Amino acid sequence: MHRREFLETVGVGVLAVGGTRGRQDAYRNPVYDGVFPDPDVLRVGSTYYAYGTYHPWTEGEGPDRELIPILRSPDLVDWEPVGPAFEEPPAWSRYRGLWAPGVGRFGDRIVLYYSDSEFGAANPGIGVASAPDPAGPFEPRGGLLRSEAVGVPNSIDPAVVVREATPYLFWGSHQGIYGIELAADGLSTAVPPDEKFQVVGDGVEAPSLVERGDSVYFLGSRGTCCAGPDSTYRVVAGRAEALRGPYRNREGERLTAEGATGTTVLESDDRFLGPGHCATVRDAAGDWWLLYHAYEAGNPWVGDTPRRVLMLDPVRWEDGWPVVGDGTPSAGGPVPAGEAET
What we know:
The protein is mainly β. The protein is 3% helix and 46% strand. The chain has helices at 3-9, 147-150; strands at 26-28, 40-44, 47-51, 67-73, 80-86, 97-106, 109-117, 125-131, 139-146, 159-163, 166-171, 173-181, 197-212, 215-222, 234-240, 263-266, 272-282, 288-296, 301-302, 305-306, 308-318, 321-323, 332-334.
């Protein structure tokens, strides 16, 4: 079914260029059609904030060149830019890319983690910044870790999780996914590097962790992210009884085992390509939603910059596992419920 046919089927009027919604009760993908890769999302009061990657693919600055762009939305559907996290590169950074931010709330402050890297970087790392307002600007607070110091190759793609009042950072890209306990304010690690723990083996990046009931779920991305329509990104999942694992796929294989892969929950179709680098959030009704990036078929580039747009899909749970639609990105659907809770 084509996107127009789908929208007419669910009762959504055909939208003008640049719009995201027809009636108040439905939306269509992408929910933000500017370049916005590697999203993380934070809910503060009745507002959602999304944070994305800065990619200096070409010289010059522009809407897709902000140093960690930030979007704001009342409903996960209508997004507006509210500015960059940084007005200039943090002094700690040594590479051109400020990639794949992760974000958490620590008391009355928002803490932002960002990947300091570029393709082929010898010693990438994760920096940290904080702000009283989720819209920034953020004050750089130095570095959290670098690959050589912590012993994890390709230390990028941070994600923060709070488990029983203790914060943890998870990170890694294609050479293992690791976790480490953070200090109470989130601005440093609480333990030395040798107390890190591995949760997933090679071939996965962009970790996101979800607690539901007595289980913890790992979501990550396999494949290539940045080759336009040839990208092979897809979202995979594992499940564990404890935050530190072991995480297993549906077949019961440990995700740290050689050759083991997560269970695929989202992959390309003929409309949207390379879906991945996801984040989860709950709406006011307690329903789960997945934000992620993907390419629109037929429009995968802006110059030489991969045109990865912001996508939204509901997550349902079947037999204790997350399920996203039919396993491919949707054309659209009902808008998330009500205003977000604190």
